[in-house]
């Protein structure tokens, strides 16, 4: 199916809580021979990087996922950079036994401590998005260690700092940006203990499975703040992994006040394999964004890697 023959549905979805500076998630649904996919690279992604998001969308829209080996995966709750009391309330209401908490700001430690107080047996993960320098990371992770942290996700940005940090603290380290942006698939095992894989930025379900095999680390599949239609691809990847992944970061549907499809939400701290969802009848199409997304899609298409290759 040629690109110009595909229907585009731009969207603007309000978030319940600001997340990484966003209050609205923007993107575009794209039709295919089987259904729909989601093309929603963030504004700071280049056309080459955005081409992987397009590959993911086309794979889904054309029904090209491999067969799942399981029908359900466990998820962690996501705690954004909110006030400590709000973080504790979100942890309790999630009913999840694994909680991922955004840190890196002035309230990070207090946020984690508040969650630990109300969830004494939960597995706690912290996500820094590479915001700390090495000295700060050493100080903060040593401070957080008594709260018992399962792992710290990308506390520093460079591989050299990750290696130095790994030798300086006892908290295990997970890599996200090092994989998603830097694409250090063959090097990451030298400076991280866990690989966080985000399906759309990696190029789709099959590409994610290839990366999971290549990195040689325990894998956690996580959302790239996908709406529920796009989130289906991430759940599909987790369900297709031959080894059971750790609790995945796929409970992010709760962050959306409106959604592109039937909301893909956790039940009993898990999400079910959703198949290929279709756009919600009530989806409000952002027609004013059509030209912008059409242009971005065409530019991304010029960088597409042939199927079966990791670009």
Describe this structure in words.
Helix 1 (47-61) crosses helix 10 (290-301). The protein folds into 2 domains: 3-66 and 282-301, 2-Layer Sandwich (Enolase-like, domain 1), CATH 3.30.390.10; 72-272, TIM Barrel. It has 311 residues and is an alpha/beta fold. It has 10 helices and 12 strands. It has a 7-stranded parallel β-sheet. It has helices at residues 47-61, 84-94, 108-118, 134-144, 159-168, 177-180, 199-202, 205-215, 228-240, 290-301, and strands at residues 8-19, 22-31, 36-39, 72-74, 77-79, 98-102, 123-127, 149-153, 173-175, 194-198, 219-222, 270-272. The chain is 33% helix and 20% strand. The longest helix has 15 residues, at 47-61.
Topology:
Elements: E1 8-19, E2 22-31, E3 36-39, H1 47-61, E4 72-74, E5 77-79, H2 84-94, E6 98-102, H3 108-118, E7 123-127, H4 134-144, E8 149-153, H5 159-168, E9 173-175, H6 177-180, E10 194-198, H7 199-202, H8 205-215, E11 219-222, H9 228-240, E12 270-272, H10 290-301
Helix pairs in contact: 1-10, 2-3, 8-9
């Amino acid at each position: 199916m040629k690109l110009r023959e595909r229907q585009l549905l731009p969207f603007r979805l309000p978030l319940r809580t600001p997340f990484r500076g966003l209050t609205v998630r923007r993107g575009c649904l794209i039709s295919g021979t089987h259904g729909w996919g989601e093309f929603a690279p963030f504004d700071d992604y280049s056309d080459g990087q955005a081409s992987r998001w397009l590959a993911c969308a086309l794979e889904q829209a054309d029904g090209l996922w491999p067969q799942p080996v399981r029908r359900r995966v466990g998820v962690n709750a996501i705690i954004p950079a909110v006030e400590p009391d709000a973080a504790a309330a979100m942890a309790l209401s999630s009913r999840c036994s694994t909680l991922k908490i955004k840190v890196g700001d002035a309230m990070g430690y207090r946020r984690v401590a508040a969650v630990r107080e109300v969830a004494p047996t939960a597995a706690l993960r912290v996500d820094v998005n590479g915001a700390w320098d090495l000295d700060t990371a050493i100080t903060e992770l040593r401070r957080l260690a008594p709260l018992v942290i399962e792992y710290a996700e990308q506390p520093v940005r460079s591989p050299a700092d990750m290696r130095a940090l790994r030798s300086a603290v006892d908290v295990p380290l997970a890599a996200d940006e090092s994989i998603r942006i830097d694409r250090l698939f063959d090097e990451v095992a030298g400076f991280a203990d866990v690989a966080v894989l985000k399906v759309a930025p990696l190029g789709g379900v099959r590409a994610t499975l290839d990366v999971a095999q290549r990195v040689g680390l325990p894998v956690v599949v996580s959302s790239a703040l996908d709406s529920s239609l796009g989130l289906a691809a991430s759940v599909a990847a987790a369900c297709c992994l031959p080894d059971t992944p750790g609790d995945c970061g796929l409970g992010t549907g709760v962050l959306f006040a409106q959604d592109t499809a039937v909301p893909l939400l956790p039940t009993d701290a898990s999400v079910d394999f959703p198949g290929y969802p279709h756009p919600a009848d009530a989806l409000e199409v952002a027609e004013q964004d059509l030209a912008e997304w059409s242009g971005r899609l065409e530019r991304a298409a010029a960088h597409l890697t042939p199927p079966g290759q990791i670009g």
